[in-house]
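hi support,

uploading two proteins for the ticket. first:
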Amino acid sequence: QVQLAESGGTSVQAGDSLRLSCLASGGTFKNYAMGWFRQYPGKEREFVAVISGNGDHTYYSGTAEGRFVISRDNAKNTVYLQMNRVKTGDTAVYYCAAAGAIILWSGMRPTDFGFWGQGTQVTVSS
């Protein structure tokens, strides 16, 4: 029902900031909670952040909170992940995801989301 496309992944140095974007097409964007996940090679996809449809609720993983900020612009059908003070451990493929009516919390699972983008690579060097 909705298609997602991430962008903004790049190579940066530890301590830098960058912003990932995810453009959605199809569906009614404001009806979807939007999440960010990341995946290390050989590991399961892990939760980073989630935001409610109207943007009034956000939750973060323990690793992300205090450094990352998730936001959305429903007029542009776009969700963002602002990554601040990045660390080498943030190196991963980052995916955005969309979900219908779900309960939001700080431990979202990949199975909670029905739609996924193709991912964008973030590489942090020291």
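and the second one:
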Amino acid sequence: QVQLVESGGGLVQAGGSLRLSCAASGIIFSINAMGWYRQAPGKQRELVAHITSGSTTTYADSVKGRFTISRDSAKNTVYLQMNSLKPEDTAGYYCNAEITRYSGGIYRTSNYWGQGTQVTVSS
């Protein structure tokens, strides 16, 4: 069973910072990529940041220069450092990972989602 568990969300004032963590656990052959998505009420879930196994990163234009994604491969963990937070960053933040499992002689690559962690930024 593969699980993604996020932590680090909370309530902060505009201009503040938070660091989100997402740890993957279970029987994992490889993690090919991990990313953070967010979803505000009434809006579609959007990609915030993404990092590949080769450490290539991608950011939404709205967070470039403010957010930094990183990973610790040994811990199967990805982080999102969020600085200069704005009220419009308020959303549920969800970790996503492309993970390959091996079971019964079969390799299976799938996307997995964490349960989400709430980030609320007050003005």
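thanks. also noticed: The chain has a mean pLDDT of 96.
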